[in-house]
Inverse folding.
């Protein structure tokens, strides 16, 4: 009989939720992570009493009551509502595109005026079969919204011109004809009171964990201490990159502690002009309505992933999707291995979708 029922590689949302549910059923787990902390990308670092989202802003939102009740049973959530701003050439616009945005752009005050303006610009574009992201955006929302709020930000995010990006990246662009700055349409939304570490610590309470522990540095040992392995890392790395490497975008953070109580008045401000190198500035204290005398901001810079960097966003184009499918075919043949999460499934997931996936795994 082996020492553990499950070895869980990766202590992010997926691994922590799986371990929590397995332990509740009396199945002994070991959770390992190569980072010096638990929590994966939701880990928060405390700076001057502020919970800093070390790997970028994370806002929990869902319309799934089962998921909301589950995370709420672990930690209490606050009422934070994501209402980002976009800054273009010194002027601020509300996101998502709504009546406040259209008033700032054109001075229109009614939904009919806004719809007419968008329809006019869509017709001017004269695009019926979009061949790239730029044409897709122009055909959906017209020139002004595209050039001011989409083009520069998207090119920084992906490191490619919009004319070189596939149209399917933006199948639709949400346009809201109300004065509503709530970015999400979900029924539930918030941040764990005390930060995401509270959620992860609650999920992993009483479960054996090891940080600074790389599965690949001692692979033979780890493959033989548990009946089954839950792997949440990079699927191509698991298979020694035998078919080649999957591509990712990564994000670098320039974080500063400032001697002011309030830097930008909002948690998230996107910078949509191409000339500004960072994509957005996060002011972390606003996620938890902080009143500390200082503030912490993070400027985010998007770039191509290289070895040693954190892989953030899968590049789900045709080439990478075909490559991932070859790895998935190998994974599907495994009998004591289970691959789950953003890196293992080469798919961008919101946090609630990850929790829902794990809650619906049969026979944990």
């Amino acid at each position: 009989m082996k020492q553990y029922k499950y070895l869980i590689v990766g202590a992010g949302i997926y691994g922590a939720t799986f371990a929590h549910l397995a332990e509740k059923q009396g199945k002994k787990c070991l959770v390992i992570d190569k980072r010096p902390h638990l929590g994966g990308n939701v880990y928060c670092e405390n700076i001057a009493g502020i919970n800093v989202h070390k790997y970028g802003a994370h806002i929990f939102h869902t319309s799934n009551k089962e998921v909301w009740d589950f995370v709420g049973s672990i930690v209490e959530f606050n009422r934070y509502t994501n209402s980002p701003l976009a800054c273009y050439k010194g002027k601020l616009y509300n996101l998502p595109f709504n009546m406040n945005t259209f008033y700032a752009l054109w001075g229109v005050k009614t939904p009919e005026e806004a719809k007419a303006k968008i329809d006019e610009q869509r017709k001017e574009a004269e695009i019926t079969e979009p061949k790239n992201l730029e044409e897709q955006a122009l055909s959906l929302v017209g020139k002004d919204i595209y050039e001011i709020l989409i083009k520069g930000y998207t090119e920084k995010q992906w490191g490619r011109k919009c004319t070189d990006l596939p149209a399917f990246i933006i199948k639709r662009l949400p346009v809201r004809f109300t004065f509503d700055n709530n970015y999400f349409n979900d029924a539930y939304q918030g941040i764990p009171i005390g930060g995401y570490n509270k959620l992860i610590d609650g999920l992993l309470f009483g479960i054996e964990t090891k940080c600074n522990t790389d599965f690949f540095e001692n692979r033979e040992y780890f493959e033989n201490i548990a009946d089954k392995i839950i792997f949440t890392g990079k699927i191509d790395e698991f298979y020694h990159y035998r078919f080649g490497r999957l591509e990712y975008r990564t994000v670098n953070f320039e974080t500063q502690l400032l001697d002011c109580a309030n830097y930008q008045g909002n948690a998230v401000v996107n910078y949509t002009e191409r000339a500004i190198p960072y994509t957005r500035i996060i002011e972390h204290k606003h996620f938890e309505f902080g009143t500390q005398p200082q503030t912490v901001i993070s400027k985010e810079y998007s770039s191509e992933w290289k070895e040693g960097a954190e892989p953030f966003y899968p590049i789900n184009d045709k080439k990478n999707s075909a490559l991932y499918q070859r790895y998935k075919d190998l994974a599907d043949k495994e009998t004591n291995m289970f691959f789950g999460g953003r890196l293992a499934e080469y798919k961008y997931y919101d946090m609630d979708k990850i929790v829902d996936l794990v809650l619906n795994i049969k026979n944990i």
Observations:
- The chain has a mean pLDDT of 96.
- The first strand starts at residue 4 and ends at 9.
- Residues 52 and 284 are 6 Å apart (CA to CA).
- The two ends are 18 Å apart (CA to CA).
